[in-house]
Design goal:
Strand order of the largest sheet: 2-1-4-3
CATH architecture of the largest domain: Orthogonal Bundle
Order of helices and strands: HHHEEHEE
Largest sheet: 4 strands, mixed
Number of strands: 4
Number of helices: 4
Distance between the termini: 53 Å
Helix content: over 70%
Structural class: mainly alpha
Length: 251
């Protein structure tokens, strides 16, 4: 086979692989973003549980503050009762004290309710924190693997680019220029194999004489339909490595 033809065939293989590797590298940030999305549901669950627990604690604190305020009010009312000059004034102070004590009991009852509610809320927060931690560990491992794959992909691309440059240096300039022109005009595919009398790229039937000339492999030939560089790869004949069958044993 013509040297330039062998080289452009290999060049096409390298360009095909480089195209795939470039796509893989470009997809890496999106892949990382998809991996990190796994954390969102756990983070939202933890935020909601923490918010519920915080609201519970805030209300308990408010109840404690209300109780203190009512206690202080009762203390003042009792001092004022001592200065009451009439029964009506005394009863008025007592009614206010009774009201304050009722409010204190309400706050105390509410604190007990909140304390009972806080236990499962606290458990929810701890469970959500554990789940998020486990998910982060898994996500970090996936991200590390993705980075390793990307690094390997980038190294493979560098090696192929090095090989590509070496190939280009060996190809006749006119042949390489023709290859690049076709590749750019045919979505990256400049070379196609002739299979069963057809161009594997456009699937058009090759003329018999053209096909016979193509089989010789002594020149670069262009598909008459899609204008790609065509080549013929003869089938490999697998011979019986064991040789002829052993003669039958004599009786």
């Amino acid at each position: 086979m013509l040297s330039d033809l062998k080289l452009v065939i290999r060049l096409q293989e390298i360009d095909n692989r480089l195209r795939d590797l470039t796509r893989e590298i470009a997809a890496f940030p999106k892949h990382i973003a998809e991996i990190e999305k796994k954390l969102v549901s756990h983070e939202r669950k933890l935020e909601a549980d923490r918010a519920a627990l915080a609201a519970n604690q805030k209300e308990r604190k408010k109840c404690d503050t209300d109780i203190q305020a009512q206690d202080q009010k009762i203390s003042k009312l009792k001092d004022q009762m001592l200065q009451a000059k009439t029964n009506d004034q005394y009863r008025a102070f007592q009614n206010e004290i009774d009201f304050c004590q009722t409010e204190i009991r309400k706050s105390e009852d509410r604190i007990l309710e909140l304390m009972n509610e806080s236990e499962p809320l606290d458990k929810n927060v701890k469970a959500a924190e554990a789940a998020l931690k486990a998910e982060k560990t898994e996500v970090d491992a996936e991200k590390a693997q993705a980075r390793e794959r990307t690094d390997a992909t980038q190294r493979a691309a560098q090696e192929l680019n090095t090989e590509r440059a070496a190939l280009v240096a060996q190809i006749t300039p006119s042949a390489y220029k023709n290859y690049e022109r076709i590749r750019k005009g045919r979505r990256g595919v400049a070379v196609a194999e002739a299979v069963e009398g057809r161009c594997s790229a456009c699937n058009m039937i090759i003329r018999l004489q053209f096909f016979q000339d193509l089989k010789k492999g002594d020149q670069i030939m262009i598909c008459e339909s899609c204008q790609r560089i065509l080549y013929y790869n003869p089938p490999v004949v697998v011979e019986d490595l064991a040789g002829e069958a052993a003669p039958a044993a004599h009786k």
